[in-house]
Amino acid sequence: MKINLKDLKPFLLPALIIFLILVVTAFVLKPKLEVMVKSHQQLTKDKKILADLTKKLATLEGLAKVEFSEKTDIALAVLPAEKDVPGNLAVIKNVALNNGLIVNDITISEVGEIAAVSSEIKLKKDAILPSFRLNVSLTGSLEMIKNFISQIQSTAPLMEVKNVSLSQKKTESPETKMEIEAYFLPFPKTLGKPEQQLIAITSGEEKIFSRINGFTFLKGQQTLPNLPVGKENLFSP
């Protein structure tokens, strides 16, 4: 059976139109539809993020601003966000002098790490907080040394006395050498995802704050000791 092309002529135009519609749908409308779908999905996500941020803003606005600011100042004074070598040296000197001790020498170990500006803070093994170490030599009675150790560990900024050694010479005011670990904690680099819930201060954190709130703050008394600190720039952040 032969097919007469003239008989198919009435169907050619509709077929061509259908073909063009399919081509336009595949190459023009489909990408636009995909963009519209993605835009709708992104808009939905943005609305959720905005809702989460609005909730966080309401929570922050509900805080007692003055109390929150005071607590923040106290926390930063006890645990600075940066290495505060001058502040640590001044506190050690002033606490020692207040107890009648003679400051023979203060040296800073790991000078290279302190002087270097690093984008990442590497914790020492088994360490909870970043820190640097100061080697201190003092002269005074054992009672003075005892008071110094007690006070330096309860005076801002946060420091911890380690490895105390006394001179073998029999004298009322022996030389005492000790290592003092000075702590700091940089600010976080991120503030968390919008969907993450703001965590209120826990009872455990309140107990910690009540302890550091009892620290001594030597405001207006910090003067740098006139001691050699080496050629490196120890006061770099």
User: How many structural domains are formed by the residues?
Assistant: 2
Distance between the termini: 94 Å
- So what's the CATH class of the largest domain? Alpha Beta
What is the helix fraction of residues, given as a range?
Answer: 40-55%
If classified by CATH, what would the architecture of the largest domain be?
2-Layer Sandwich
The ordered string of helix (H) and strand (E) elements is: HHHEHEHEEH
Numbering strands along the chain, what is their spatial order in the largest sheet?
Answer: 1-2-4-3
The number of helical elements comes to 6
CATH superfamily of the largest domain: Ribosomal protein S6/Translation elongation factor EF1B
Task: Describe what you observe in this structure.
- The protein is of the alpha+beta class and 237 residues long.
- It has two domains: 12-62; 70-186 and 198-212, Alpha-Beta Plaits.
- The chain has six helices and four strands, in the order H-H-H-E-H-E-H-E-E-H.
- The chain has helices at 5-61, 65-78, 85-98, 111-115, 142-152, 203-212, and strands spanning 102-108, 131-139, 159-166, 175-183.
- Strands 1-2-4-3 form a four-stranded antiparallel β-sheet.
- Helix 3 (85-98) packs antiparallel against helix 5 (142-152).
- The chain is elongated and about 125 Å long.
- The relative contact order is 0.16.
Offer a quick outline of the entry.
InterPro entries: PilO, Transl_elong_EF1B/ribsomal_bS6. By secondary structure, the protein is an alpha+beta fold. It is built from six helices and four strands.
Topology record:
Elements: H1 5-61, H2 65-78, H3 85-98, E1 102-108, H4 111-115, E2 131-139, H5 142-152, E3 159-166, E4 175-183, H6 203-212
Antiparallel strand pairs: 1-2, 2-4, 3-4
